[in-house]
Amino acid sequence: MVAIVNYGVGNLTSILNMFRRIGVDACITGDKETIQNAGKILLPGIGHFDSCMERFNASGLRQVVESRAFDGSTPVLGICVGAQMMTRKSEEGSEKGLGWIAGDTVRFRHAQDSSFKVPHMGWSDIRVCEGSVLMDDLPEEPRFYFAHSFHFQLDEPAIATTRCEYGYDFVSSFRLNNIHGVQFHPEKSHRYGMRLLSNFGAL
């Protein structure tokens, strides 16, 4: 079962409905025991980085989620700000991130007269890198839905599993052992998102 962590933030129902559509057992939960016993964990997030971190820390769920993330075997997936939270910090705010991933979350750096507007919203092709188990059975350049003004800046580029071009090249997903993070929204990405979440459910 996939435990979708409910700390008061994220497209929880949309994510749950997508899992149900593809036949993956999942639930929305803020219960520590349920999270402790789940086969997989999904950390959602949408909105402001500081607000998400504050709510997650206040929820009392951080310790149990981290214990599963650090056990080295439980697949954990962060979506959008849920993935950004896995980094050390974000230029969007002053709260410390979880620090699971060696890297930071930074704002898009485009010239004011650039045709690439921030936030980056809509469908974009991504390039699949090696080691991306979530991208199995997807084309080399699948399309996913994005809605963000900030992106990952990793200390170790080798953990990037996909990259995207929006004015310049940036990391759109990563994997460190059992911890996965995606900047885009698989729950809004139709058949590509269904395949990604199906792959996660099969881990």
Could you walk me through the main structural features you see in this protein, from its secondary elements to its overall organization?
The chain has 203 residues and is of the alpha/beta class. The protein is built from six helices and eleven strands. The strands form two sheets. It has a nine-stranded mixed β-sheet with strand order 2-1-3-4-11-10-9-6-7, with helices on both faces. A two-stranded antiparallel ribbon has the order 5-8. Strand 10 and strand 11 form a beta hairpin. The model has no long low-confidence stretch (mean pLDDT 95).
Give me the strand/helix succession: EHEHEHHEHEEEEEEEH
Which residue ranges are poorly predicted, with pLDDT under 50 across at least 5 consecutive positions?
none
Counting copies of identical and different chains, the oligomeric state is single chain
What is the mean predicted local confidence, pLDDT? 95
**CATH arch. level architecture:** 3-Layer(aba) Sandwich
Order of strands in the sheet with the most strands?
2-1-3-4-11-10-9-6-7
Could you name the CATH class? Alpha Beta
Strand content: 25-35%
**N- to C-terminal distance:** 11 Å
* Helical fraction: 25-40%
Instruction: Round the Cα radius of gyration to an integer and report it.
Output: 16 Å
Number of domains: 1
Helix and strand composition category? alpha/beta
Based on DSSP secondary structure assignment, what is the total number of beta strands? 11
How many individual helices?
6
